[in-house]
Fold this protein.
Amino acid sequence: MSSLRLRPSSGSKWRTAATSSLVVMSLLWGASPAAAQGNGRNSVPRSFEVVPITITGVALDTATGQLLASGLVGSSPFTTPLRVTAQQVPGAPCPILDLSLGPIDLTLLGLNVQTSPICLAVTAIPGGGLLGDLLCGVANLLSPDTPIATVLGGMSVSDRDRVLNGLTSVLDQVFDRLVSNNANIAATCQVLSLSLGPLDLNLLGLRVELNDCAAGPVTVDITAIPGGGLLGDLLCGLSGGGSGLSTAFQRLLFQISLLLGALL
């Protein structure tokens, strides 16, 4: 688990407050009926990220032999362990590559962003491309006696980079879906709870099965911390109940996503 607590300097506090005030005014106007009429029906995209989470890289920690996934929530970095194992399937040319991502837990400007554990079962699709062939090779070599560090160490630099960049792309595309407004959404003074899955995806010539490591949906929960900061207090007041089926709620949700993107 990775936890990051930010303590803004006194110089940055007034800038955050000033930015908050401007964005809040825009948010409130953008969510109003008058603005909705003025902007037209296409003012809210069909698909957008509610929380700006990006996976920026997967790297091998040479000290521990463990893979680490790095990313950003807004502009705030996080790192979480990525466990890789192989599951043999009788008669199948490629074992299933099991990826297990530790929970993400960040505290930012009065908001706590927390995910459930995330598990991906990755199967190469025959003829799906070079990445699938490389991951099939990795899965065939993995065993309790041959950890991921040993497998990667035996590859050429270019192939190792392709594997790590491919894992980065798979994880980033999974997070795109997880934090999308098309996920199942509930809004309370918890602010937001998003859930996705279990489901199967076809990504980059791979079959990816997604769940929370216990056959349930992957979740992202955003909780306001009372007195923890302006952003938490503000969003608690704005989110106040709703459902993803309402056009008005989707409009407000889009405005909240703009606010999160501007301030995190």
In short: The chain has a mean pLDDT of 77. Residues 2-6+15-22+48-263 form one domain.
